[in-house]
TrEMBL record:
Gene3D superfamilies referenced in this protein's UniProt entry, alphabetically: Homeodomain-like (1.10.10.60), Tetracycline Repressor, domain 2 (1.10.357.10)
Entry-linked InterPro entries: Homeodomain-like_sf, HTH-type_Tx_Regulator, HTH_TetR, Tet_transcr_reg_TetR-rel_C_sf
Protein name stated in the entry: TetR family transcriptional regulator
Species annotation: Algoriphagus antarcticus
DNA bind region: 33-52
SUPFAM superfamilies, per database record: Homeodomain-like, Tetracyclin repressor-like, C-terminal domain
Lineage: Bacteria, Pseudomonadati, Bacteroidota, Cytophagia, Cytophagales
Annotated ranges, domain HTH tetR-type: 10-70
PROSITE patterns found in the cross-reference section: HTH_TETR_2 (PS50977)
């Protein structure tokens, strides 16, 4: 394939990111290499390093997209639901669906805990993460206003409990599925459904 040396920096960056997504989805996080990105982007290796200083820099950029994708899953999940409790249940189940549909992107959600991420990328990630958090807390406050959710527990605490519990449940399924035979047989979507019912039942007045 002939390489075009006259693309703008923005087009070059998008070209590199597109190739990075292909490699991520095909090879996964552990097997991801810059050489594979170079192959799929059909550009010189030095061009990649001109815009992204290393693999972690690329992962951080893709992590921003991962949280944007998750946020879209949440919004779609609650679009036709009126009950705040049912909205929260749907959010929990949509988080599992995102993990199931895009496990490689899901694996990048906590990538910004790494120290080498630059300030600009971290700022973009934190902005969309805050929007996602506000989205969930708005549902919780709506439930309190409608009398569906108890006002005894602070909204932020409920948000953190739901978020951490859901992540923990997904991690349990992922890490134990090879060790616990039942997890290979059991309907995992039904398991998440039951988890959502249990965790939201304690929110009712």
């Amino acid at each position: 394939m002939k390489r075009n040396k006259h693309h703008s920096p923005e087009i070059r960056k998008q070209q590199i990111l597109l190739a990075s997504e292909i490699v991520l989805l095909k090879e996964g996080i552990e097997s991801f290499t810059i050489d594979q990105v170079v192959f799929h982007a059909q550009i010189a290796k030095g061009t990649v390093y001109k815009y992204y200083k290393n693999k972690d820099h690329l992962f951080a950029e893709l992590a921003v997209k991962s949280v944007e994708m998750l946020y879209q899953y949440f919004r779609t999940a609650v679009a036709d639901i009126e009950s705040p409790i049912q909205k929260l249940q749907s959010v929990i189940k949509s988080c599992y669906r995102f993990y199931h549909d895009y496990p490689q992107y899901y694996g990048l959600l906590n990538y910004f805990e790494r120290k080498e991420v630059d300030a600009v990328q971290r700022g973009r990630y934190q902005k969309i993460s805050f929007e996602l958090q506000s989205f969930i807390e708005k549902i919780i406050d709506e439930g309190k206003a409608m009398g569906e959710i108890s006002g005894k527990v602070p909204t932020q605490s409920i948000d953190y409990i739901i978020w951490s519990g859901t992540i923990g449940m997904i991690q349990f399924i992922e890490s134990k599925k090879e060790l616990i035979p039942d997890l290979k047989v059991i309907n995992q979507e039904k398991l998440i459904h039951d988890f959502a019912l249990i965790i939201t039942s304690g929110l009712r007045i």
